[in-house]
Structures are given as structure tokens and as C-alpha cells.
Design goal:
7-stranded mixed sheet, 6-stranded mixed sheet, alpha+beta
């Protein structure tokens, strides 16, 4: 690390406080101390996970802490350095194939100093040329210093902060109290709520100028973090054993100081997406009431078999709207190579949209796109005034953006590192991944995807873009502060920008989940990380699709068992820090999952201990008092209907019903009522059938992940599973869920 030169500390922010010195002194290993250093160096750090990054950290004086709190200069600084629009630092790094992301943050804040870090995520080429990437950072900082930050940067930031505070969604009580308590020592009582959110006063420009004045190459601590630096990292950090080394960078620092302004870099323009019209369009006649179901969407007319759902906000009174689009198509997962191509296409599109929609994102609008095994999705949200224009922009970009070789190589590199990292996850995560492969045979393994990543070319991505969604089934949901005609017009604009012919019903993608037979099967694996000391057990008990009260029994039992199994296996037997029980769902099929991660016992012994616990738990059920059982029921019933507290949460919940083709919009309230009627006899009957060893409906899949340090003595088990599958999830469109008591 290159410690900064001496930075004078300004006067105290208040007469009640003495100025603090810089955190470390030079004799403490070259940290953030005061005092010039003759030979600057970079610290080379070897991370545990796949990562490539270079960062610069400065310890900067805070002359007036109260002014800092009011104007929050770090907000404008972050917006400048993390901008994604044309002319930004990140745009240049991506165009040259050097970087993929930028993060800026205040690591530590006191009344006398602030520790500020700018971190650049690098590509493989960027790691080899990290001084060039850092040179671009220092060139942009110099541009800000010499040209001056435009006043509209502060004006826009103030306006958006004011909008965000005025139309903030309600937060959870505990989170609200915690956040407010943290601000109380810093702000006067009248500003306890507004102070942390608003940007106030005229101190922004001079305070930011002071920060930028201290963010020079010679004042920076430089750190390079990547596995590739291991040969140059002979030292070990004393607490965690992290390997690191030091590299002199006097020549690099001199070059950064003399670096010219780059013509590709420019300061941001005024944001055209900041909303001006904020009127609430529908009467707020449906206030939220506890226990009363929320309104449900209506179906708008649409051609070519598309389904368009709409719900005007009459509850929350916010000038925001949300739009979701889903095109079902079988073209994204026909092979491992196709799956990788789709992932790269989606990643490259997302990167283009990040730049194209950056100003919209700064103005409170959100745009996201992605692919899954059976669909392409677009999700939009934010202030409603400019949402239709954003929707059309995103849809038109899908087929019009130009896939470049540099972007392709970045995404392939990221995907390969993600796949390598996936094999080094915690054993419990690997167990869940292996269970997914066993139950969903159409799913491709990390090994298959990694092999395909080595075969895919840019021409494959271009070909997918050319033919993407030529045939698809469209489903959309629009909600919030929009009129019905505005919602319909938005959908028409998206369909015109991204036309798709109707998809024949027989070509709709079908996801199948394996049906486990009564009894049990065990599969065993070795952890991918040779340094991992833990092994893990995951025991999955498959129940089946929603039928009768099975889902309610499963949910209630999972709550009761989780507390008891933790007390027995974690607290009493001390098997490991991770002991959990919970319900799970995949493709409409429910199940109960137990996980135990341990360095004390191998997975087979963990399973034996778990089975012993389950044999005794039936007695616990019998002895559970009526009062305790009622407490569990009431708690879950209350949780079920504690939904739709916020406009975005309501839209997300309703969209989940649409995306899964269930359309059971009143499910939370009906399930809550039925949970209160669950009986002890029904609960014990469910336990005896599905959970207890020997139960007629017990279908077990156990996954063992062994530490490489303690492998099993014999060969790894790989019990076969039958080729039997649950029927595909039925289309619930048109079902009268209120009258159908067979499904919860």
C-alpha cells in the first residue's frame, strides 16, 4: 500500500470536540498515517474467492463535520465516479476491455477525517494493465478538479433526494427505529428523520472540491486483489492469514501525476429523467386494512394470445408505477451451449442497458432484464412520468444493440470465474446444488456449462440476438400510478419495439421435477475446496404439489422442528454452527429440507443423529401444549397476510402469481384463515406419513458432501433415481380460487 503524504487536519467541527489525528502512524506498517513516504508501494492481496480488483484509498480531512452531514459530498462523488453513461470512467474502462464495475464508498467517518475508497473491478486484461486502469481513474479525478463539477450535479442530487424522502415507502418498524437511532447523535431533533436523506445547504461544491483536492495519486493507498498475484505475495497477515506482498510503484505514481486529460472522458450532463409531473391519477379509495384482501388485477384486451394484467393504485398514493413483461420461449435452454449463449446475451444486454438507462436509474427508475430456462423477462419501475419511454427504450435495445468482442470476452471471463467459484462454495451450498441436479434432470451442471463456455463464440450470441423471441407467449402486468389507457399504450409500445409471433401451445416450455419413490436414496460428493474443513448433510423429504392442507402442515412443522433441531444438534450436541430446517418449493412441488454443516462428524453420522432426533420429535408434538401450538398457528397466520405493505412489494407479489401462471391473487388471506384451523391430529398425521422414518409417503433424498481432508473410506454412493416426474404445473388462469378448497 502506498500511504498518503501528510494531509493537514482542519479545525474541529465543533468547540466540543478536539480534532483527531489520522488513524495510523507510519511505523504501524505503512497504513493511513500522517507523514510522507519516500517510496510508495502497492499491496498485492490474494483473495479466497475469484476476484480481480484494484483500489485507491485516501484519508481525507473533514473541515466542518456539520456541513458534511448536511451536503453529503460523498453522494455527488459516487455519482461522478460510478456513472455509466457515455463519457464516464466506467464506459471508457469497458470500451478498452479493462474493467467491469466501479464502487465508491466511505469506509470510516469521524468528525475530523473520512476514509474514502474507489475500487475498480478488472478483467483479465485489466489486471495485467492495472496501472493503466488506475491512470484513467486519476485522469477523471483531475478532470473534476480542473474543470470543476457542474452545478447541475448538485442540483439533480438534491432534487432526487427530496423526491426519495417525500415519496419514501414505509419501512419495517425495527429497521426504522434502528436507522433513526443511529442518526440521533448527529442531527438536531427536527432533522432526525430528514437529515440522513436530504442534501441541504450550499456546502456541497466547496466540500467536494476539498475532497477532490486530496484524492491525488501520491496520497492514495493502492491495493491489487487477485489470485494471480500469489507468486508475488510471500507475506501472511497475522489475524486471518491472508497472503499479501508489496510492489514499489514510484514510477506508476509519477506517471499518474503527469497523466493528461483524456478526450474520451467528460462530466455528466443534466438529467432529463428527473420527473416533473407527480400527480396521483386515481382516487385513493382502498386504504390497506389488516385482514382485508388487497384488490386484484384486471385483464386488459390484448391480441395474439397475450395476457396483460393491470391494477391501478388506489391504496398507496405514490407517483410510481411498475411494469413486468415475460416472453415464454423454449429457445434458451435446448443445450448447455444454448444456455451459456443465452446467459452471455443477457449479460451483454444488461451491460448495454446499464449505460443506456443510467440517467433514468439516477432519476429513480429501474430497468432489469434476464433469461431463465423458459423465458425472457423485463422488469421496470419508478416514477411513472417517464416509465413508458423507458419501457420502449429497453424493448427496442434487445435486438438493436451491437454485441462487441470486448463485451463478449468480459462476460465469458465473469461466467468462468463464477462457475469456478461455485465449486468452492460452502458444503451446504454444494449439497443444495447437487439436489437440484438430481431433481431437475434437464438442468445443466457447472461442468457442462464451463465446457460450453469454452466453445461459444461471439457469432453465437449475434445469432441468438437475431432470432430472439421471434415466437413467444407474452404475459405482462402493469400496476401503480397509471390509467388503464396509459398501461395499454405502454404494452403496445413494447410489443411494437419487440414484436413476437404467438407461440403454439405445444411448444410452450415445460419444466419437470423428478418424483422420488417412497423410501430413501443417498448421493455423496467431495467438497470442491481442498482447504474446506467442513462436511455437510442435506436431507430432503419430498411432499408433493399443493393438495388439501399439506402445505399448511409442512409450513407449521418446519417452524416447530427448526427451533427444536437447532437446540438439539447445534446447542446440545455441538455438531456445527449451521443447523437448519425449512420448507422449500421447486416447480410447484413442496418439501422439507434439513441441513447440517460440521467439522466434528462426517455426513453419515450427521444423518444418523438427525434421524434419532426425528424419532423423538413425534413425542414432542404430542406433548406440545395447546397454547404453544396456537402461538405457532397465530404467528404464521399473521405472517401470511402481512403482505402488500408497500406498493413495490404488492406489485412483486402479484407478478409472482402471474409469472408462475397460478393467478391466485387472494392466496395470503385464504391461507391465513386455513392456518388457524389446522389441528393437532392433522399435524401428527402429516408427520407420520411424510416425515417419520417408515412413513408411507416418506420420500427421502440425502446429499452428503465430505471435506477433502476427511473423505469416506469406501467409494462415494450414487443411488439411482427413477425416471418418474410430477405433471407440469397447471395453468391456473380462470380458476375460481375462492371456491376451490382443494388447493391452498
Amino acid at each position: 500500500m502506498s500511504p498518503p503524504i501528510a494531509i493537514p487536519i482542519g479545525p474541529p467541527a465543533s468547540a466540543k470536540y478536539d480534532p483527531l489525528g489520522l488513524p495510523l502512524s507510519p511505523d504501524q506498517g505503512g497504513g493511513l498515517g500522517s507523514g510522507a513516504v519516500a517510496s510508495p508501494f502497492a499491496t498485492l492481496v490474494v483473495p479466497v474467492r475469484e476476484q480481480r480488483a484494484v483500489s485507491a484509498t485516501w484519508c481525507l480531512p473533514v473541515a466542518d463535520f456539520d456541513t458534511w452531514l448536511a451536503c453529503k459530498p460523498q453522494v455527488a462523488l459516487s455519482q461522478l465516479l460510478t456513472a455509466r453513461a457515455d463519457g464516464s470512467l466506467l464506459s471508457l474502462l469497458k470500451r478498452e476491455g479493462l474493467g467491469t464495475a466501479i464502487e465508491v464508498g466511505v469506509e470510516e467517518q469521524t468528525r475530523s477525517f473520512a476514509v474514502v475508497t474507489a475500487s475498480l473491478a478488472l478483467t483479465e486484461a485489466g489486471l495485467a494493465a492495472w496501472p493503466t486502469a488506475m491512470g484513467h481513474l486519476f485522469s477523471y479525478l483531475r478532470l473534476c478538479r480542473e474543470k470543476g463539477v457542474p452545478s447541475h450535479v448538485f442540483d439533480d442530487a438534491k432534487a432526487l433526494a427530496q423526491l426519495g424522502f417525500r415519496y419514501a415507502e414505509p419501512s419495517q418498524p425495527q429497521a426504522f427505529v434502528t436507522a433513526t437511532a443511529a442518526s440521533m447523535p448527529l442531527y438536531r431533533p427536527a432533522a432526525w428523520l430528514s437529515g440522513p436523506s436530504l442534501l441541504e445547504g450550499a456546502g456541497g461544491p466547496p466540500t467536494l472540491r476539498q475532497l477532490l483536492g486530496g484524492m491525488t495519486p501520491r496520497a492514495a493507498m493502492v491495493e491489487v486483489c487477485a489470485k494471480e498475484v500469489a507468486p508475488k505475495a510471500p507475506l501472511s497477515e497475522q489475524i486471518y492469514g491472508t497472503r499479501y506482498g508489496r510492489q514499489p510503484i514510484e514510477g506508476e505514481v509519477a506517471a499518474w501525476e503527469a497523466a493528461p486529460l483524456l478526450p474520451e472522458l467528460s462530466l455528466p450532463r443534466p438529467n432529463p429523467f428527473i420527473p416533473k409531473r407527480l400527480a396521483i391519477k386515481a382516487p385513493q379509495t382502498l386504504p390497506r386494512k389488516e385482514g382485508v384482501p388487497s384488490p386484484t388485477p384486471s385483464l386488459l384486451p390484448a391480441a395474439d394470445g397475450a395476457r396483460v394484467h393491470f391494477l391501478a393504485d388506489r391504496t398507496f398514493g405514490r407517483p410510481r408505477a411498475f411494469a413486468y413483461f415475460l416472453w415464454r420461449s423454449p429457445e434458451f435452454y435446448t443445450s448447455a451451449r444454448t444456455a451459456v449463449t443465452a446467459e452471455l446475451f443477457a449479460g451483454m444486454l444488461a451491460e448495454v442497458l446499464q449505460e443506456a438507462t443510467y440517467e433514468a436509474a439516477q432519476a429513480g427508475l429501474v430497468a432489469a432484464s434476464g433469461v431463465s430456462s423458459d423465458a425472457f423477462t423485463v422488469q421496470l419501475g419508478g416514477y411513472d412520468e417517464r416509465l413508458p419511454a423507458l419501457a420502449t427504450l429497453v424493448a427496442s435495445t434487445v435486438r438493436s444493440f451491437e454485441p462487441t468482442q470486448a463485451a463478449f470476452e468480459r462476460k465469458v471471463d465473469i461466467l468462468r470465474r463464477q462457475l469456478r467459484d461455485a465449486e468452492r462454495r460452502q458444503p451446504i451450498s454444494l449439497a443444495g446444488y447437487r439436489r437440484g441436479l438430481a431433481l431437475q434432470p434437464a438442468r445443466f451442471s457447472n461442468e457442462q456449462l464451463a465446457a460450453a463456455a469454452g466453445e461459444v463464440s461471439l457469432s453465437d450470441v449475434a445469432a441468438m440476438q437475431e432470432g430472439v423471441l421471434r415466437e413467444a407467449q407474452l404475459e405482462a402486468f402493469v400496476a401503480g400510478n397509471l390509467r388503464e389507457n396509459e398501461a395499454a399504450e405502454m404494452v403496445r409500445g413494447v410489443r411494437a419495439a419487440l414484436p413476437a409471433a404467438p407461440l403454439a401451445a405445444e411448444r410452450l416450455p415445460i419444466r419437470r421435477l423428478r418424483r422420488l419413490p417412497p423410501g430413501g436414496a443417498t448421493r455423496q460428493f467431495l467438497a470442491g475446496n481442498p482447504e474446506e474443513p467442513n462436511g455437510a448433510l442435506e436431507m430432503y423429504l419430498q411432499v408433493g404439489p399443493d393438495e388439501g392442507d399439506d402445505w399448511l402442515h409442512l409450513l407449521l412443522l418446519s417452524q416447530m422442528i427448526d427451533k427444536a433441531v437447532y437446540a438439539e444438534l447445534r446447542t446440545k450436541q455441538q455438531l456445527g454452527y449451521i443447523v437448519q430446517c425449512g420448507s422449500t418449493e421447486a416447480d410447484g412441488v413442496r418439501g422439507l429440507v434439513f441441513i447440517v454443516q460440521s467439522s466434528v462428524q462426517p455426513p453419515p453420522e450427521l444423518e444418523a443423529r438427525l434421524e434419532a432426533f426425528l424419532r423423538l420429535f413425534r413425542g414432542t408434538l404430542l406433548l406440545t401444549s395447546d397454547e404453544e401450538l396456537d402461538t405457532y398457528r397465530e404467528s404464521l397466520a399473521a405472517q401470511m397476510q402481512d403482505v402488500d405493505q408497500r406498493a413495490d412489494g404488492q406489485a412483486s407479489r402479484l407478478w409472482a402469481e402471474v409469472a408462475t401462471r397460478r393467478y391466485d391473487f387472494g392466496r395470503p388471506w385464504r391461507s391465513s384463515k386455513r392456518m388457524r384451523r389446522v389441528t393437532r391430529d392433522g399435524l401428527i398425521g402429516f408427520y407420520d406419513k411424510y416425515i417419520a422414518a417408515g412413513g408411507a409417503g416418506r420420500c427421502r433424498l440425502s446429499t452428503h458432501v465430505f471435506s477433502q481432508r476427511s473423505p469416506p473410506k469406501g467409494p462415494l454412493r450414487d443411488d439411482p433415481l427413477p425416471d418418474a416426474f410430477f405433471p407440469p404445473t397447471a395453468d391456473g388462469f380462470g380458476v375460481d380460487w375462492a371456491a376451490d378448497r382443494a388447493v391452498v
